[in-house]
From TrEMBL:
GO terms for molecular function: triacylglycerol lipase activity. This is Uncharacterized protein. Disulfide bonds join C54-C78, C177-C186. The active site is at S39, H302. The keyword Disulfide bond applies.
Amino acid sequence: MNRRQSSRGRCRVSIAGILLAGFLLASGEEIRPVAIGDSYASGNGAGSYSDTLCMRSNDAASEVAAEFFGVDAINASCNGAWTHHLTEPRMISDMRRDISDPEGFGSAARIASLLAQCGVGMDGAQPDFTIEQTESGFTALCSVTLDPQIQALGDATDVFVTIGGNDLGFVSVASACLIQEDEALCRTAVEDAEERLDGILESERVALVALKEINPDARVHLVPYPRLLEGDLTVGSYDVSGEIEDLQGRWETGLETMADDLNETHGGFYYVGAVTDVWEGHGLAGEEPWIHSDGNIAEILHPTVEGWAATGHAYLVHLGTSILNGHP
């Protein structure tokens, strides 16, 4: 099958999936989605952020899916999260700011800005904000601890999980292979990631079992990362594209196998393969990239708003086909 025929086949599957999602909506199926994981779950790159610490976006994929069903999503994911942050608290911010002004105390606007930076009012955050007087003026002290992400489940019907990229060393791989373009560093970063993968999958398995103990009835959807690279990228003699494609393929297979195994032992586990399908041709150097390659440094190598919308569409395709067909 050539690429055009394959794309047409995926298009038919997507249309069928959206129609089935529509049947879910029409049938009154309850969908209460929760997103947990890292920046590839929070919506980093989409803009419209509800906070500056986790970069949770109102246009994240979980929000796109929730809007289709006319409900609100809970986004407990966070920029920079590692797998253990699904089940353990995380100190995300610890800052100290001088808030003195010529009149001797910080302005109300400045204090309000600091409160926002401190996570006051942020879901799942436990901020500790104090102001102390010093000889030279006033200082604001703030520390923010996030609850374990799985504590946000509540009565969720569907939990979308995207995690492991930070454990794997994604930043090191991107820095060595895409920014520094150093062959030796790139090769080492990718090989290190390959060695970590099995341990990361096992850590995620443990967290997913703990998740089910909190909400046994939730459907849990394991979401792979989008394929970020298109075409042939080499650094020196090192085939970066080929090695990373193999690594992601192995990771996706591991997630799919995990979903199958956990579905047999606990029930309600699914693998969201539709994400990989919808992203084909949209990585870096693709015909229509959905990845930030410049601009806000915090958003670099994260999906654009178009990429997040497409991922949300993939969620809907997945929900329609998996829930109604009863297939993980």
